[in-house]
Each structure stands twice: as C-alpha cells, then as structure tokens.
C-alpha cells in the first residue's frame, strides 16, 4: 500500500542528501565523531498522527533544543515575573555561547543562549530545589512531552562536562552578577545533563507538537505545560531560537523553532503540528545545514509559514 506522507518525506530527504556543507560540532569530543551521513525527519500533528522518514530511530543528544522546555518548566515553577526578572527576551545577535548580558539589568539577553539557559536551569523546580531535583524535573517533563521515558547519552554528558570551560565561565559571571544564587558548578552539571537527554526525531516531533497543541501531549491527552507558558516559549523561539539566523529562518520557514549542536531542529506550528529533523553537520550559525534545507522545503510545499 502506498503511504503518501512518508513517501513525500523520504523524497524531501533525498533532495537534500547532496548538501555536504558544514561540520559537526567540534567542541564536544563525542559529537565531533558523529556519523555525518545520518538524516531523519518526523512530523506529528496535534491530533496524534506521526510520520517519519530516514534514520528516525537513531537517538542523539537534545542539546539546546532542551532550552525551550527548561524555560517552560521555570515559568511554571517560579512564575513568569520571576523568570523575566533574571532573563530577557531579546535576540542577542551574538553566538550562542557569548555572555550577552543586557546593559543596565545585567540579565542574559534571552533563554535560548547558553547564559540565559544556565540562568533558566537555576530556576527549575523552585528556589529550594537541589541539583538532582532540577535535573529530574526536566527529564520528567521532556519525557511527558515525548510520551515515553527518556534517558541520557552518558558519553556526551561526560565529554561535555570535561570541557565545559565556557559554560563554567558564564555561570560564574551570572553568580557574580546576582542572577543565580546556586553553586555555579552544580548549575553547569545540571545544565549539561539537561543537554544530554537522548531523543529521536519522533520524540522531538511529539515534543514540538505538544507546544503546538497548547501544552497538551497529542497521544496521551495530558496537559503537560501550562497554556500561558507555551505562548511565552513559542514567542521566544520565534525571535531567538535559531540564533543570529533567526531573521532568515522566520522569512524562509516562518515557524517557531529551536536547534541543537548535535544536529537536531524542532519547529512548532500552533494549532497544527510539530516537526523535527536531524543531520549532524552544522552551518556557520550552529544550525544543522541539511536540517534547515529540509525545513525550508517542508514549509514551502506544505504552506507552513505562519504569515
Ligand atoms: O552548552 C552547550 O554549548 C551545549 N550543551 C548546547 C549548545 C547548543 O546546542 C547550541 N545550539 N545550536
């Protein structure tokens, strides 16, 4: 029997397979050795249909794609005002690993850059939470969104923690500026764990579809994030999710999105669907080169642009 959507998705992957630009992230040893031939896509509709093509069962570390989910958790756990007091919502125009503090407030510019994500991590599970409580809150939330229990890529966690000098530097600056109060080392450890959660494109498409579905997981029907938090998360993904390529992305693809250095990208189109792509080679902005091409093609073919 013909399956029109998976066949179409397989054709889209074939169309971008010849793109050989970019390189896998090299500052995390395990990611530098990734199999760069991997390519996968998944779509999940808000009514629970899931379609996949390519290496859709291959797991990879979620990396920065965890940042919107951590932001949602922080908003739920301490309230939006407390989050906004410590982390801004403006694009930084700088690379994801720069300090990028706002003049005057000394807040990290937004929760999608590393400085903002470290500050966000520190708010998860409330002011009295321990390191393990923050980590488990995030693993459990991301699992509820994926609809299955997620685990960690321990090799990625260990490799990243070993060389996390920039993130340690950022966390110490945040502590010195009074943005975080916990021990910087504990925050970096928890944040690196958050980034090492292992996912497939199917998991990510369902997580994105949960955002698109106002916080209700399409398969389980559970309200896993509060609706008001979802609006805030999708807004910040739109302006800051693709770093300094955000303008090109919004023009060409036109949906709230987030990328990660392992080569994943998610997109969430409110009321319609979540999508996820995976291919390890990154472009100059740190976004998956083939992944961006897949999303541009899907947006054009399926009319996904929000405008
Ligand atoms: O903190 C880091 O550098 C990584 N754990 C995550 C960075 C990331 O995914 C940036 N995304 N494109």
From TrEMBL:
GO terms for molecular function: glutaminase activity. It catalyses: L-glutamine + H2O = L-glutamate + NH4(+). It comes from the Bacteria. Substrate binds at residues 64, 114, 160, 167, 191, 243, 261. The keyword Hydrolase applies. Its EC number is 3.5.1.2. Keywords: Acetylation, Hydrolase. Belongs to the glutaminase family. Homotetramer. This is Glutaminase. It comes from Luteimonas kalidii. The lineage of its organism: Bacteria, Pseudomonadati, Pseudomonadota, Gammaproteobacteria, Lysobacterales. The gene is glsA. The chain holds residues 1 to 307 of 459 of the full protein.
């Amino acid at each position: 029997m013909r399956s029109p959507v998976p066949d179409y998705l397989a054709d889209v992957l074939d169309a971008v397979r010849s793109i050989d630009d970019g390189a896998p992230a090299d500052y995390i040893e395990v990611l530098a050795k990734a199999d760069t031939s991997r390519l996968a896509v998944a779509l999940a509709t808000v009514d629970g249909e899931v379609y996949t093509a390519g290496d859709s069962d291959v797991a990879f570390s979620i990396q920065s794609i965890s940042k919107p989910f951590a932001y949602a958790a922080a908003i739920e756990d301490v309230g939006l005002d407390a989050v906004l007091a410590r982390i801004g919502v403006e694009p930084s125009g700088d690379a994801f690993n720069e300090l990028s503090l706002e003049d005057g407030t000394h807040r990290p510019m937004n929760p999608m850059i590393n400085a903002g994500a470290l500050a966000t991590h520190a708010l998860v599970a409330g002011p009295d939470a321990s390191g393990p409580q923050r980590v488990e809150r995030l693993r459990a939330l991301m699992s509820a969104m994926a609809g299955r229990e997620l685990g960690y890529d321990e090799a990625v966690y260990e490799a990243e923690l070993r060389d996390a000098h920039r993130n340690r530097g950022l966390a110490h600056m945040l502590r010195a500026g009074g943005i975080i109060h916990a021990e910087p080392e504990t925050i970096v450890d928890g944040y690196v764990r958050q980034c090492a959660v292992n996912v497939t494109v199917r998991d990510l498409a369902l997580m994105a579809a949960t955002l698109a579905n106002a916080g209700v997981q399409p398969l389980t029907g559970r309200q896993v994030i509060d609706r008001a938090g979802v609006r805030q998360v999708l807004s910040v993904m739109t302006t800051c999710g693709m770093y300094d390529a955000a303008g090109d992305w919004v023009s060409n693809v036109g949906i709230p999105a987030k990328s990660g250095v392992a080569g994943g990208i998610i997109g969430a189109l409110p009321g319609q669907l979540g999508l996820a792509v995976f291919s390890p080679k990154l472009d100059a902005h740190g976004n998956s080169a083939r992944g961006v091409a897949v999303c541009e093609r899907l947006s054009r073919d399926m009319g996904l642009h929000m405008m």
